[in-house]
Design brief:
The complex is a heterodimer of chains A (111) and B (113). Chain A is mainly β. In chain A, 0% of the residues lie in helices and 59% in strands. Classes of the chains: A mainly beta (111), B mainly beta (113).
């Protein structure tokens, strides 16, 4: 069964304290892996798409990487405004299916 | 703003009532998806459309749920005879094609009393 697992469930950081969020997946083939940010009461906001192992994408303090079994979202020198839930989703290899999401990692950054 | 829009943003209803939500996708996106999200969980797929055709429905979508996308533009999701277990955030997303990024709307939060 296709599955996405994110860890940790919650992460508390001090401002400027870098860390990484993990997304491990078990799918029958992978046509894409997506990272989204979600603020409370709002819809997910797109961050990155990764398509193949070894690929990396960066945006401001965030960097996403992909291997054959997992993806990492690295947060460098986070600020309080980076506090949110970060969702990972995969597009399995079987055609005609939709995104499979993990439960997310809730990040809190304090000043 | 040319993003995905959803209405209403909030809906409170009594058990047994019918509710309908609307989603307006990004212009010219031919794929439209509906997801449901409960507290502490990631979004779960419900159904999707390519243009006006409904191509797949999740087993989560009971026969009380129906979705339409007339003329391949906006979409509606109707829940008949609502139950307390239907309380959730209902999210709509659109994409230009199957493998491209899905962009989400703000969601409709449903509370069934």
């Amino acid at each position: 069964e296709d599955q996405v697992t994110q860890s940790p469930e919650a992460l508390r950081l001090q401002e400027g304290e870098s860390s990484s969020l993990n997304c491990s997946y078990t799918v029958s083939g992978l046509r894409g892996l997506f990272w989204y940010r979600q603020d409370p009461g709002k819809g997910p906001e797109f961050l990155f798409t990764l398509y193949s192992a070894g690929e990396e994408k960066e945006k401001e303090r965030l960097k996403a990487t992909l291997t054959k079994k997992e993806s990492f979202l690295h947060i460098t020198a986070p600020k309080p405004e980076d506090s949110a839930t970060y969702l990972c989703a995969v597009f399995p290899g079987q055609a005609g299916t939709a995104l499979i999401f993990g439960k997310g990692t809730t990040l809190s950054v304090s000043s | 703003d040319t993003g995905v829009s959803q209405n209403p943003r909030h809906k409170i209803t009594k058990r047994g009532q019918n509710v309908t939500f609307r989603c307006d996708p990004i212009s010219e996106h031919n794929r439209l998806y509906w997801y449901r999200q409960t507290l502490g969980q990631g979004p779960e797929f419900l159904t999707y459309f390519q243009n006006e055709a409904q191509l797949e429905k999740s087993r989560l979508l009971s026969d009380r749920f129906s979705a339409e996308r007339p003329k391949g533009s906006f979409s509606t999701l109707e829940i008949q005879r609502t139950e307390q277990g239907d309380s959730a955030m209902y999210l709509c997303a659109s994409s230009p094609s199957e493998e491209e990024t899905q962009y989400f709307g703000p969601g409709t939060r449903l509370l069934v009393l």
